[in-house]
Amino acid sequence: MYFSGFFVVFSWSITTILCDTIPDYVYYCTGNCNKPVTTQTHPGLILMGGGTDVDAAFIQQIEWSGCGDFLVLRSDNDDKYDRYVYNLDCANSAATIWVRNRDGANNPNVTDYINGAEAIFFAGSNNLKKFTKKKKKRPAAVKRGVPIGGTSAGCDIQSYFIYSATNGSVNSPEALADPYNKLMTFAGYFLIQGDDNILNNTIIDTHFVTRDRFGRLITFVARIRTDAGGRKLLKTSGTYQLCAYMYQLDLGKGLPIKGIGINEQTAFAIDLETGLAQVLGPVDTSEAYLLMPSHDPEVCEPLTPLTYKNVNVQKVKPGYVQRVACSYVCIRICFFFINRYSSLQLIYKLTLLSLPLFCNSDVFNFRTWTGGESSRNYDVSYINGVPQEDPYN
Ligand SMILES: *[C@@H]1O[C@H](CO)[C@@H](O)[C@H](O)[C@H]1NC(C)=O
Ligand SMILES: *[C@@H]1O[C@H](CO)[C@@H](O)[C@H](O)[C@H]1NC(C)=O
Ligand SMILES: *[C@@H]1O[C@H](CO)[C@@H](O)[C@H](O)[C@H]1NC(C)=O
């Protein structure tokens, strides 16, 4: 009796000590962190394909935030975005929350930070997809129409369906050889933008050309088109750390699913008021692919290589204009001082002029699924898992 009482108290103390020293979230902030602002925001979506960050896309998101408070959500411990974002343009502050676990995702303080932000960005991370949030309410920040962005896995989670990779990551040859192999795991998400989500019925893949993912994306599309005619809420799984609802894939056929393949150093900046997206990034490496099949796959069965003929593809690229010209010009007066840790700290920043420059990149309309150069529109066929032409064209 006494012994077990002691044991309970003892383990309670240990737990308390551990819980006090290991918080479920960690908050970092640069800039005017004690003076948050409330600005007029413009709804937009930044979809970034991983690798080197695209400055122009961050600048666009900061501009859409009305120079407000920029918040990065991530599941690993790194606050490198704070200084980068703060010094890039006119953000009032740039903060990162390291969400360490599911409790962190559900912590009311984290919800408050999200609700106070004028821009939200999901950093890439392998763990990102596994944190879910219990509450099903969409945060006020999202309802306010704040611009949302993400790169790599943080971009993948923006689409309606996601490749969850819960059994490990699949490569193109493995996916094509057997569209039902055990690495082909999906989840349905209803993230952020709600029912009129511009990314309704899409699945995104990132690091697209760098990791040769055309074969796996076309197989994802084929699988979801074959299996996911309807969606059913998985009550037990709750939501993603921000506000995604998770759905189980129902059986059914013919969903008008579309694939979005985004290469590294490439970003779509989608204006949610118009549905128009600019392609941003350095001209030589940036490209994205929109897979828009109009029919079911010919063969999408277990243990059988995929056959999917004449899938329409629109390739999009930034224009010939240099990356710097695809950005904004900012002239600033900066005051620095040396703080007591002898590091240079920016204490005041005034943006005098911020002009968008002419940028000749491809424009794609995500409402109508049209746009881009007609010369970059083509069909791709895979027969018995083998592409009949260069899918990247
Ligand atoms: C929320 O933040 C406050 C102030 O930093 C802190 O005292 C409190 O413990 C936090 N609450 C939770 C649930 O983490
Ligand atoms: C994941 O792998 C396990 C073990 O191989 C398997 O039982 C399970 O069905 C796989 N999940 C999916 C969705 O294929
Ligand atoms: C989203 O897709 C589903 C399934 O195709 C469809 O029923 C629904 O109307 C779509 N929503 C919008 C806003 O297009």
Automatic annotation (TrEMBL):
Gene3D superfamilies: 3.40.50.880. Coiled coil: none annotated. Keywords: Signal. The keyword Transcription does not apply. InterPro entries: Class_I_gatase-like. Residues 1-19 form the signal peptide. The keyword Signal applies. It comes from the Eukaryota. This is Cyanophycinase-like protein. It comes from Reticulomyxa filosa. The lineage of its organism: Eukaryota, Sar, Rhizaria, Retaria, Foraminifera.
